[in-house]
Amino acid sequence: MFESFGIIDFIDIALVAALLLYIYLAMKKSGAINIFLGIVLLLIVFVVLRISRMTLMKGIFDTIVGQGAVILIILFQNDIRHFLSDVGSNRSLRFFKRFMHKQSAADKRKWLMPIVYACMSMSKSKTGALIVVQKSMSLSDYVHTGDVIDAKVNNRLIENIFFKNSPLHDGAVIISDGKIRAAGCILPVSHDRNLPRYLGLRHRSALGISQESDALAIVVSEETGNISCAYRGEMFLKLSSTELDHKITELLNE
Q1: Would you state the pLDDT for residue 194?
Q2: pTM over the 0.70 mark
Q3: CA distance 165 to 56
Q4: 12: Cβ–Cβ under 8 A, 6 or more apart, which residues?
Q5: 3-state DSSP percent of the chain in helix, strand and coil, to 5
Q6: Would you say 131 and 172 are in contact if contact means Cβ atoms under 8 Å apart?
Q7: Residue numbers of the chain with a pLDDT score lower than 50
Q8: DSSP character string of 32-97
Q9: Closest to 209 measured CA to CA, from 116, 122, 146
Q10: CB–CB of 39/64 below 8 Å?
Q11: CA separation for the pair 208, 200 (Å, rounded)
Q12: Do 103 and 179 meet the contact criterion of CB atoms below 8 Å apart?
C-alpha cells in the first residue's frame, strides 16, 4: 500500500490539509464554525458508508452530498465570493497586481493624506463620516447605490459631503485610485455579536463592507468624534491622527 506512496501523494495530502485549515479558519472568523464541523462530520460518515456494505444508507448520503453542494453554493455565495477575492488578493500575487496596475507610494500618499486631514477635522467638529477605500476587489455594486461624483480626493470636498445639512452625509463615500467615486452609498451591515453595543450603524456598516471585501473603511463617530477603521472583519477603535495615518499606509500597502 505504502510502496507506491511518492512525493506527489504527499503534496496532494498537504494541499488538502492546507485547504481544510484555511476553510476552518475562515468559517471560525465568520462565526459559521458549527456549520463547518457539521459538514466535516457528514463527509466522514459519507466516506465510512462508501467503504461499507450499507447500500440503502449509502444511496441516501449520495443524494444528500450531491444536492448539498448546490445548496451550500446558494447559501454561502457571499462567503465564496469573499474567499475567491481573498485568494486573488494573496500576497503571493502581489507582483502581478503591481505589474498590471502601477502606482508609486508617493502617488498613493498624495491622495491618502487628504483623507487623514478630513478625518482629523471632522473628528474635532464631531461630524459623522464613513469613508471606504477600495483595494483589489471592485466595489461597483455599492458605488451604484449612491450618487456618482468621480472627483479627485480633496479633504474639503470630503468634509462638505459629510456636513450635517448635506443630503449625502448619511451614506458612505467610496474612494478608488485617488478619486471619490460616489457618495451616499449603502453598505452591508454586519451582525457580528462581538461588536460593542455602543457602536452605531456607521461602525456596523464599516465592519460589514470589510467582511464582504478587502476594502478599508474609516469611521468618524458623530457622538464622540473618535476615529475608527475596519479591515478584513476587524475593528480598530479610537485611533489618533498618527495611528490612523500609520494604519491606512500599512493596510493599503499590504
Answers
A1: 78
A2: no
A3: 68
A4: none
A5: 55, 15, 30
A6: yes
A7: 1, 91-102
A8: -HHHHHHHHHHHHHHHHHHTSS-HHHHHHHHHHHHHHHHHHHHHTHHHHHHHHHHHHT-GGGHHHH
A9: 146
A10: no
A11: 12
A12: no
